[in-house]
Amino acid sequence: MSAADIIAVGRRVLAQESQALEALSASLGEAFVKAVETLFDAKGRIILTGVGKSGHVARKIAATMASTGSSAIFVHAAEASHGDLGMVGPDDVILALSKSGEAKELADILAYAKRFEIPVIAMTAAPASALGEAAGIVLALPDAPEATPEVNAPTTSTTLQMALGDALSVALLERRGFTPEKFKVFHPGGKLGAMLRTAGDLMHRGDELPLVGPTTPMADALLVMTEKRFGCVGVVDAAGKLLGAITDGDLRRHIDGLLTHTAADVMTQNPRSVAPDTLAGEALAQMQGRITVLFVIEGGKPVGILHVHDLLRAGVI
Predict the structure, then answer these.
(1) Phi, psi at residue 207, to the nearest 5°?
(2) Cα separation of 200 and 68, whole Å?
(3) Superfamily name with CATH number, domain 3-178
(4) What does the alpha-carbon distance between residue 278 and residue 11 come to, in Å, rounded to a whole number?
């Protein structure tokens, strides 16, 4: 098999799955709305269930929902018959995945749902199947062929399940008014967690701030700049409000007669700054070009200072 043949296979699969996703998008309607509202209104948890490849997708959807503010867990359909039904309560909603809708392992959990009047949402390519008949809401997958017609391995169908799960999760996220601040609570680790920390979390504060008044002689301003070791000094008025900042670039521009000037003479007015609740990722975006330091401002007054090295240590970069 040549390299060109291999690439052709990859492109064929992607094109086929892309077409199926377009069909899925076009098919969304009242059932999708009802599913989102039912999941949103659940007083208990969202129970994701399935077996085989559908089970793997269900587990991923549960993880996505849980990380975006929905109380969701995965219960393996086969394990449900051996005690795990105890995880499912009367206030829960079940979201069951099966392409054929005829997975025998689903029978017990569906019977349990019927017995205790637990709402069931089906995600299946066969609305007339046992699963489809047992569900109050059916999210029908398009009748799209798998990418491996010779062996019929789950490919296109699991892509559709995954995408529809993402669509449900994002619709729920926006329905709940879920914010980046809430998202941060569920993602404290890794680069994502670092990006969701705020300037207030990472900033230096109090005596660490390099600040001088506007009439401070530059000789004294340089001492403060050197002592605090941020490569800059902020200039504040009598009320403590930030008027400007002096950086290495300002020093070079005023090198002739530098020590004869005051801080107000040398400073750059209205320096770039951020608020304490600015996300670390947004603060990093503000540090464009040669900017390595940002003052953190609240009510016009500097309450902290943030260096690019702080973002580096936190794992943002």
Answers:
(1) -70, -10
(2) 23
(3) Glucose-6-phosphate isomerase like protein; domain 1 (3.40.50.10490)
(4) 41
Q: φ and ψ at 209, to 5 degrees?
A: -70, 130
pLDDT averaged over every residue in the chain = 89
Summarised one tens digit per residue, pLDDT across range 275-299 is 998 888 788 888 876 788 999 999 9
Confidence (pLDDT) at 187 = 47
Identify the three-state secondary structure at position 25: helix
The Cα–Cα gap between 300 and 105 comes to 62
How is residue 110 annotated by DSSP?
A: H
Residue 146 and residue 70: Cα distance in Å, rounded?
31
Query: What is the distance of C-alpha 107 from the center of its chain?
Result: 35
Closest C-alpha among 136, 164, 151 to residue 57: 164
Q: Where are the domains of the chain?
A: 3-178, 199-314
Q: Convert 98-135 to b/e letters by CB count within 10 Å (16 or more is b).
A: bbebebebbbbbbeebeeeebbbbbbbbbbebbbbebb
**Cα dihedral sign for 307, 308, 312, 314?**
positive
Are the C-beta atoms of residues 122 and 135 closer than 8 Å to each other?
yes
CA separation, residue 146 to residues 15, 49, 143, 152 (Å): 12, 22, 9, 6
For residues 3 and 101, give the distance between their C-alpha atoms in angstroms, rounded to a whole number. 38
Residue 195: pLDDT band with limits 50, 70, 90:
low
CATH code of the domain occupying 199-314? 3.10.580.10
Residue pLDDT, tens place only, 224-274? 999 988 989 999 999 999 999 999 889 999 999 999 999 999 999 989 899
Residues 148 and 119: their CA atoms lie apart, in Å, by 34
> How far apart are the C-alpha atoms of 162 and 291, rounded to whole Å?
41
